[in-house]
Amino acid sequence: MEHTTMPARATTTRRLAAIGAAIALVVALFCTILAINDSGGDDDGTKAGGASAPPATDSAQQRAYDELARSTERREAGDPLALGRKDAPVVLIEYADYQCSFCGRFSRETKPDLIEKYVDSGVLRIEFRNYTIFGEDSERAARASWAAGRQGRFWQFHDELYAKPRKGDALSEEKLTEMARRSGVTDLDRFHEDMSGAAAKAALKKDQEEGYRLGVQSTPSFLVNGRPLAGAQPTEVFSSVIDEAAAVAKAQGKGKDDDKGKAAK
Questions:
Q1: Cα 12–Cα 16–Cα 17 angle in degrees, nearest 5
Q2: Which of 33, 115, 144, 183 is a plausible cystine mate for 176, CB 3.0–4.6 Å?
Q3: Over the stretch 63-111, which tens digit does the pLDDT of each residue have?
């Protein structure tokens, strides 16, 4: 019996169609979540906080989430904007702006709990995306955070930025330099060079275009294994969604081996 294979072009076309369908689904879900959000606006125009976790998924939705996760998760070894194992069964992608007060709330109140409970045990990987929506000051801060990452201090600088609400002049180059110093960035000349360089702008553009493609309309917004979650939800909401994603990953045979050790941060 003659064996036939599908042409590469047809395979690629089908894969792109599947990714497109997944993106369309997530765009619709993001919009739905934002529409039912009853917490009102942030003082800086950011919507967040009130929506509950998305309902349990059916099989078609789950397939779409899986496809979207494959197209958005980077899982790059040594990524300075990521926490956790490269092969963690669950990946949380955060789209955030440094002038967003609800993003700061997530960083201060929720992220530490998720790191302790899920990242340190190897279940969760967190990947940060600079999704700037409040203009030039946000973009400068985002480029600075990327530059700090070039010296292995992204998360220290990130947490310093979110230690309290910062807007406008609080994100001047002079203030960012001082925060970089406090965050352990040692080569400040290199920091300034990296912050203003083409590579930083390209990195921000990549994150921004990814968010636009998904239809992200406010910060913070998240994907958990491809499943959308909008706003600085209580830790319990994130735990519920992460636990469900981990269970699905385990059922699909994607769980980590227990003997691989603790998560790298």
A1: 115
A2: 144
A3: 999 999 999 999 999 999 999 999 999 999 999 999 999 999 999 999 9
In this predicted model, what pLDDT tens digit does every residue of 31-58 receive, in sequence order?
Answer: 544 444 444 445 444 444 444 455 556 7
pTM over 0.85, yes/no: no
- Which amino acid is located at 150 in the chain? R
Question: What separation in angstroms does the CA of 242 have from each of 4, 109, 126, 219?
Answer: 41, 17, 11, 19
- Is the previous residue joined to 220 through a cis bond, with omega within 30 degrees of 0? yes
Strand (E) positions, 118-194? Answer: 124-130
Q: How many Cα atoms sit within 13 Å of 21 on the Cβ side? A: 13
Element (H, E) at 245: helix 235-251
pLDDT tens digit sequence for 15-34? 555 555 555 655 655 654 44
Residue 82: beta bridge partners? 127
Delineate the domains of the chain, giving CATH numbers in brackets.
Answer: 11-46+54-73+80-259 (3.40.30.10)
Amino acid type, 240: S
198-214 vs 188-195: helix crossing angle, rounded to 10: 50
For the segment 203-254, what is each residue's pLDDT rounded down to a tens digit? 999 999 999 999 999 999 999 999 999 998 999 999 999 999 999 999 998 7
Contact (Cβ atoms closer than 8 angstroms) between residue 240 and residue 53:
yes
